Amino acid sequence: MEILGGPLFGVAGAGESHGPAITTIVFGCPAGLKISRAEVQLYLDRRRPGGNKHGTPRHEDDKVLFLSGLFDDSDHEGMLAGPVLQVAHPDGPVQESPSYEMGYTTGEPIAAVVLSTAKKSQHYQQFAGPEGEVRPGHTDLVKFHQSQGYVDYRGGGRSSYRATISDVIGGSIARIFLRETFGTLIFSSIVQVGELQATRSLSDYFDSAHGRLWANCGRANRLGRGGHPLGGCGLCGRGGRTHPPNAHRGRFDWGGRGSNGH
Known about the structure:
Blueprint lengths: L1 E4 L4 E5 L6 E7 L6 E3 H11 L16 E5 L1 E2 L4 H4 L4 E5 L5 E5 L3 E4 L4 E6 L24 H7 L17 H19 L2 E9 L2 E2 L14 E12 L5 E11 L23
Antiparallel strand pairs: 1-2, 2-3, 3-10, 4-9, 5-10, 6-9, 7-8, 11-12, 11-14, 13-14
Helix pairs in contact: 1-4
């Protein structure tokens, strides 16, 4: 499990790419913030692979379910109008429970789950074991040795792009809090993919009096020569009435390695 963030707001994520689900716990969110599943789902839809012709051809229909940390005493029916969670036991009846569609944060941990659906595990057999093929920018071999051979390599395991589901869920809640509390708006754009550079960027529309901009290097979901991912660079900025301290600190350092070993 990884814990992102600081002492006031944190996000814990667990789950492998081809496992049953990706689980997220958001803790430290103040009470009284209105959260709707539909708004968080919009951010997950932007993350979802298969959304445009320039990204990966994989198609993943990720749907988030909220299981704790929300409450609305004035509208119990609307609060419990989220997708129904079903568990079918081989030796017993099907158990059902509604999830939260909306509500106000209670100050307790917010639990969310996204079930995994698309699985073609046989496509990853070639990367298994100490003699498996090494993919640039991936951690198959490193994870194999770290786990003493017990790594789940299917779909990249815990180092898969699907691990960012927890980042998006936690980030969307933080984004809602910043918007409602400080009036902060966040913008981003891709400025370079491989050798292709954008002619305009966010800095053309902002100045130091209205927002602060910083660049974070990442990796685009495109394939270059030889099937290797192209390097990329993104620009992110924020604007609004006020800015919380340390808001510019990101997850990734300039070495390009995140907290989960990417």
